[in-house]
């Protein structure tokens, strides 16, 4: 298996895990990803759309659904009056913490099989690779 196949395989397995965990919170995979990538200090809808690689219309539909569930709040961005800022509600913060906790509990037994130095090396490599992929995607 080459690196491309490995990355695809890891992505598919991670998204399958996340889909299963998010369903217990009555969320779709897209909605869970959206919530997981809203920083606690908020983010503009356009920046989040760009970060997730989702077009604005799809993003808006997902935001409307999770807003009805009381998980996010939209407001005018104070730095850019034309932009909408998305923040997690207190209920959304609690849900994200619970979802992250569940993800951690599911990944912990897998990661325990690796020694600490290897985990640090894997994490560092994944961070670099993730950043490089993001920058490359921006150039497309």
Order of helices and strands: HHEHHEEHH
Give a short account of the largest sheet: 3 strands, antiparallel
The total beta strand count reads 3
C-alpha-based Rg, rounded: 17 Å
Please bin the fraction of helical residues.
55-70%
Q: How would you write the strand order of the largest sheet?
A: 1-3-2
| Category by helix and strand content | alpha+beta
Quote the beta fraction. 5-15%
Distance between the termini: 26 Å
Average pLDDT works out at: 90
Continuous helix count: 6
The shape, in one word, is: globular
| Poorly predicted sequence stretches spanning 5 or more consecutive residues | none
Structure description:
With 140 residues, the protein is α+β, with helices and mostly antiparallel strands. It is globular, with a radius of gyration of 17 Å. It has helices at 3-23, 29-36, 45-52, 56-68, 90-111, 116-139, and strands spanning 43-44, 72-77, 80-88. The longest helix is centred in the last third of the chain and has 24 residues, at 116-139. It has a 3-stranded antiparallel β-sheet with strand order 1-3-2. The protein has 6 helices and 3 strands; from the N terminus they run H-H-E-H-H-E-E-H-H. Strand 2 (72-77) and strand 3 (80-88) form a beta hairpin. The two termini are 26 Å apart.
């Amino acid at each position: 298996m080459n690196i491309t196949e490995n990355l695809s395989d890891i992505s598919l397995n991670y998204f399958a895990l996340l889909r299963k965990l998010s369903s217990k919170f009555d969320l779709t995979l897209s909605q869970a990803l959206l919530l997981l990538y809203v920083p606690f200090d908020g983010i503009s809808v356009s920046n989040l759309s760009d970060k997730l690689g989702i077009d604005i219309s799809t993003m808006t539909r997902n935001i409307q659904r999770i807003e009805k569930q009381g998980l996010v709040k939209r407001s005018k961005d104070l730095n850019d009056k034309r932009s909408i800022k998305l923040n997690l509600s207190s209920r959304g913060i609690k849900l994200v913490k619970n979802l992250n906790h569940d993800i951690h509990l599911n990944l912990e037994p897998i990661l325990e099989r690796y020694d600490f130095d290897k985990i640090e090396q894997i994490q560092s490599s994944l961070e670099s690779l993730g950043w490089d992929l993001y920058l490359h995607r921006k150039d497309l």
